Amino acid sequence: MIRLPQIRPLVVLALLALLCTAPAAGAATPAPAGKSGTPGKGDPESEDKDKPFRDWKKVTKDAVVSHGYFTVHRKRDDLYLEIRPDQLDQPVLGIFSFARGIGSNFVLGGLPLNDRLLEFRRVGERILVMERNPRFVSPPGGPWEKARGLSYGESVLASLKIESVHDTTRAVLVEFGQFLVSDLSDLAERLGGALSTPTGPRSIRFDKDRSALTSVKVFPENMEFEALLTYSPNSRTGLSLDGVPDERFIPITVHYSFSKLPDVPMQPRLADDRVGYFLTAKKDFGRDQAENFWVRFVNRWRLEKKDSNAALSEPVKPIVFYIDHTVPKEYRAWVKEGVEKWQKAFEAAGFRNAIVAKDAPEDSSWDAEDVRYSTLRWITSTQPSFGAIGPSRVDPRTGEILDADILFEASMLQSFRNAYRRYSGPDAIGAEVLPSTRMEQWPAHIPLERRCEAQQGVADGGALLHVALLMDGALAPGSPVPDSYMHDAVVWVTMHEVGHTLGLRHNFRGSTATPYDKLNDRAWVEEHGMYTSVMEYPTPNISLDRSTQGYYYTQGAGTGDRWAIRYGYTPSGSSDLKADHAVAQKIADENLQAGHEYSTDDDTYPANALDPRTNIYDLGDDPIRFARDRTAYIAGLWQGGKLEDRIVGDSGDLTALRRAMDTLLGQYGIALGMAVKYVGGQYSTRVHRGQPGAVEPLRPVPAAKQREALDFLARRAFAADAFSVSPALLGRLAPERWSHWGLPGAFEARLDYDLNPRTLAIQTALVNGLTAPALLARLREAESRSPDAFRMSEHLERMTRMLWGEVGGSAASAAAFRALDGTSTRRDVQRLYVDRLATLVVGPAPGVPDDARALARLQLTRIDGRAARVLAGEAPIGDYTRAHLMETRARIRRALEAGRQADAAVGRGPGGPNVVPE
Question: Which of 295, 380, 465, 638 is the most exposed place for a label (fewest CB within 10 A)?
């Protein structure tokens, strides 16, 4: 214990020392230093207090200066941005993105955050960082511009105090680091959603004290900064991030890019909905005499001919991609080939050598972040999410593509080789079946047109190809896919991502432009493409007849790609927007020619997508035929009795067999899903009135084709033996027995192979799709448009017979009852269908026709009658079947009673408040 008498002498000495050092009366007391050692008031180096700004030389003394697009001065923890008078009030393209994320949850290095049109504006003694709104335009100088100014404002992202003004150049200095080391991109909110809990978004806060500016680079046309930003969750319950060392402090590195826009804007080209380009869309209020205010430009590079009179000319400035040092050496030649295979398409637009690939120079002055260089780079992720992505910088004024940087996930090719193929469980396989369920995996903040699942196709399709080659004996058990097959996949995915950076959207009709019988015709494929656009999501072409196997992947830009490039890049010779469009429109008018078919994401993914010809992972002009052949082929692999011998061999890791089975089930489910859109479907064509060969834009799928689709599903999806796998094979599907970080927990997954839940997940997706509100609404609507329509009443009756045919109906037999009493998922899917009908009766989703509700009630009563007849009959049934039928009848009674109560509550049926007594 310290005693007070011992402390008192120390206190006295301290007071005496303080008195001895105190300034004399009237002497100035130095103020404490400001941030980063900034002199305080009264310091000999401080400015006169009457001056509004500090001395330039003193502020920049000892700073590291970088000259370029803007000049920056870095001094200790401060970053001063020098803004010349001619740089004020000028457009600056700001692109913010993840430089490093957490390796999962779509928080990944390379993914975009925000694209902004910025401007530095001086107001008094401050610089406002403004975000312009380029979406609304009007003729300058007239009443429309004044009206627009009254209606739309600009956002102030930051207000920065002017620290100093140069005496000669009148440039100003602002401390810019505080702008960058902040939650400017609203990542706290975004991370909260990405790391959400079952009850909603997680609460995340930005930790400025653990954040810092980490990189500053200045180039002639851009400046690039990186900031390490730390975020902390207010609760870590249920949080598991393998890519973060300490989950209390989540590190996110944000990349800020500020680049110069062209002094002379590019001549834009008006878009046409029949040709698939990314758009720069605006509302032009000067179009008050037009049908609407919209003006849409295609996003494209500025290509100009050296010889404007030549039919085929070199460009003044070609599109050049540099293959970064991060790309593995063994893939660089393939990546280069994928880039330059676009040259053939540009030749159709009149350009020779319009696009080239070069190895990044071994030069310290070269930097991938220099906006003058477009690059292809490799990254790694703990949980791969996109495989490859092709973001680009676009001038928001004209749609000119200024720069592009394509990222490939290293695991994409590892997945292709099937090294660590696994699913997290039945739900993952079920999500493969319908495109609409696949899109639910993407976060809502990534726009639909930016969502690319090319990696999924490469990985899953490559895994199937691997199995096929092993089963053929072309590969020895346990061996990886050889380079000859890897080559075609790398070339394709490179072409696909480069296509996005050329401005092209997905084209999921590219596959159905190829006659099915031509898929293995190598000459045809070399000329037209296996799919007429590499902007498709293909699956490997695996022939049922292995003796006639053609190419597994397409061999270059197809006829659809060449036509699309012609539209976007053929010079018109006119600087007038309307005259330029007149030239391009003639090319767009060719969209009905063979090989020019086009449908994109919004035609394919939403639950209300209606054209069965627009699919992902199909081949040929008859998706049902493809699905029939693909499912027959896959079922033959797992039922043929040779899977283990060919996959594992005499010795090896049995978990490879389990991964192969996952692959086969997933691909089987994808093929089944192609039949759903035929039911209630319509063939949709992008067509303008008056164009040559115009057809009706919407035509119902013939009723016979819809019945064919349901018959296919009855056999391959819902028959009792549709997913029949021998017990011997199921007993050999050994699980992985590793237990460490990055893998499912030892107690979280079943060790045996859960075939029934996986099968039911696929069947659930199909039943939900076949009874979706939009599909039922289209069926009902079609009845009023065609005397030969496939009626909703027939559809639901067919589904009942398909799923309940062996119970109390003409299809009943002793063998059927034995199957029903067995171990298949037949009972599960029957109850699933009953529950789905019950939902239509009790709580139909918005958009469900009332007739569908009535017909669902009818089908429930018919199923109840079927079950009652069997239970009352003399046919021998087992306990499983008896219990199943009794349970089904109980569910139906509850549903019908709940439906009556719902009707009464709203006055729709007997007993309701609107019923008039007799």
Answer: 380
Domain boundary among 230, 260, 290: 260
If you count DSSP H runs as helices and E runs as strands, how many of each does the chain have, helices first?
A: 28, 22
Predicted local distance difference test score (pLDDT) of residue 438: 65
Which of 215, 190, 211, 186 shows the shortest CA–CA distance to 201? 190
User: CB neighbours of 83 closer than 8 A, spacing ≥ 6?
Assistant: 70, 120, 127, 171, 172, 173, 174
The domain total for the chain is 3
Pairwise CA distance, residues 852 & 585, whole Å: 44
User: 639 and 501, same structural domain?
Assistant: yes
User: From CA 655, how far away is CA 320, in angstroms rounded?
Assistant: 44
Position 682 scores a pLDDT of 96
Q: Would the pLDDT of 671 be above 50?
A: yes
Backbone angles phi, psi at 266, to 5 degrees: -70, 150
Q: Report the b/e string of 518-553 with b at 16+ CB within 10 A.
A: bbbbeebbeebbbbbbbbbbbbbbbeeeeeebebbb
Residue 715: which domain range? 379-395+409-738+749-753
Please indicate, yes or no, if residue 320 is contained in any of the structural domains.
no
Shared-domain flag, residues 852 and 728: no
Instruction: Specify the pairing of strand 682-684 against strand 392-394.
Output: unpaired
What's the mean pLDDT in 312-335? 94
Q: Give 670's pLDDT tier (boundaries 50, 70, 90).
A: very high
Regarding whether 80 and 171 lie in a shared domain, the answer is yes
- 608-653 pLDDT tens trace: 899 999 999 999 999 999 999 999 999 999 998 889 888 888 888 8
Return the pLDDT at 241.
85
Q: What are phi and psi of 253, to 5 degrees?
A: -100, 120
What pLDDT shows up at residue 49?
61
State the Cα–Cα distance between residues 129 and 94, nearest whole angstrom: 11
How sure is the predictor about 811, in pLDDT bands with cuts at 50, 70 and 90?
A: low
**CA–CA separation, 897 and 864 (whole Å):** 14
Whether 623 is covered by a domain: the verdict is yes
Looking up tokens 């009332």 gives 850
CA distance 526 to 633: 26
Looking at per-residue confidence, does 585 or 7 come out higher?
585
Q: In angstroms, rounded to a whole number, what is the distance separating the alpha carbons of residues 229 and 215?
A: 13
Selected residue with higher pLDDT from 439 and 458 = 458
- Is the same domain home to 732 and 790? no
| 63 vs 427 pLDDT, higher one | 63
Residues 6 or more apart whose CB falls under 8 angstroms from that of 858 comprise 796
Q: Using CA atoms, how far apart are residues 390 and 449, in angstroms rounded to an integer?
A: 12
The whole-number average pLDDT for the span 683-693 is: 93
Q: What is the edge-to-edge ordering of all strands in the sheet holding 92-100?
A: 64-66, 71-75, 78-83, 172-175, 155-165, 126-131, 112-123, 92-100, 250-260, 222-233, 204-218
Which helix (H) or strand (E) segment holds residue 430: the answer is helix 426-430
What is each CA distance from 123 to 156, 199, 438, in whole angstroms?
Answer: 12, 45, 49
Query: Could you give the angle at which helices 703-713 and 623-639 cross, rounded to 10 degrees?
Result: 10
- 406 phi and psi, to 5 degrees? -95, 135
Q: What is the mean pLDDT of the chain?
A: 86
pLDDT grade for 10, boundaries at 50, 70 and 90: very low
Q: What is the largest CA-CA distance in the chain?
A: 117
| DSSP-derived secondary structure letter, 517 | G
Residue 601 counted as domain residue: yes
| pLDDT at residue number 422 | 46
Location of structure tokens 């034995």: 818
691: left (phi over 0), alpha (psi -120 to 50) or beta: beta
Report whether pLDDT(47) > 70. no
pLDDT of 146 reads: 80
239, 260, 281 - which closes a domain: 260
> What distance in Å separates the CA atoms of residue 339 and residue 506, rounded to the nearest whole number?
17
Q: Global pTM?
A: 0.87
Distance CA 590, CA 693 (A): 9
